[in-house]
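Q: I'm writing up a methods section and want to include an example of the input and output format. Could you take the sequence below and give the corresponding predicted structure tokens, formatted cleanly so I can copy it straight into the document?
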Amino acid sequence: MSTLAFEISQDVLDSARLTVPELKVELAVYLYAQGRLAIGKARELAGMSLWDFRQLLSVRGIPPHYDEDDLDSDVATLRRLKQR
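A: Here is the clean output for your methods example:
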């Protein structure tokens, strides 16, 4: 996996009252809320466990991305498990 670095002046971070780790969390939350990142990639960017990231989203009132296709997939999985 390759990485990309970009510069943000300390003045900007100070003005926003953010540390670099906090900025990563804010970026991850924003991109997830906009539907630009899946939860796994967003929590990775934030440097948080899945559980902690989900808790953060909940506290901020950001609903999980769960659509009809996800529901269909989950129902199919439950049916397969029930047949065992």
